[in-house]
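Predict the 3D structure for this chain.
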Amino acid sequence: MGLLFEEIDSQPSAIGEISLRRRRIPALGDRDIYEVKLGEEFLMSSMFYEAEIALADLGLAAVEGETLQVVVGGLGLGYTAEAALKDTRVSELLIVDFLETVIRWHQQEKVPLGKVLNADPRCRYIHGSFFDLAVDQQSGFDSNNPGRLFDAILLDIDHSPRALLHQSNASFYTIENLSLMARQLRTGGVFALWSQDPPDEEFMAVMEQVFVNNHAHVVPFYNPFQNAQATNTVYVGVTA
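Done. Predicted structure below.
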């Protein structure tokens, strides 16, 4: 059966120690479970990824047109990026991540979906702060093509607009900074955001000031640890 637990890698970062682990839980079946931790805080687990896939599916379903240019903010274990690439309309996917270590795990294929992303010529990694690039009115997300407009921006970094990985991220979830980010979307482009929490009326009110056709989709999934259904939220808004 192999090892029940293995720490694959652990590296310091500007926001704390980042680690990649693999474990097996015999009661849940004979499969590898990959986990990403920041210090003692869980960032991602391959036990739960339905909402990360839904982020891409729901976000791109709201976009009209072909040959889509898409940004994914937050690489994680690659589920959102992989789901986006399954949409045949996507012609290029930029994946932005602040943690170079996480990008390197995928490039070196230490995580299962690294091989999938590396093999797809539409996919490009961008090492940088999503929150800085989102409000950068000079270069934007793609320094190779300053001022470029995108069809969709899919964001999964913080646990929610209130439960932040770092307090400095709070300024992004405001009318001012969401409006700056929206300037990198074409007319009819979509912003979609993953959250671990139930729909937040206060954040929806902010979304309403920037986007149209706003929806907070509740995404159910089974939690085997609790033997019960759990939910995440995917917010979707369209540029006017």
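Residues 50-61 form the longest helix (12 residues).
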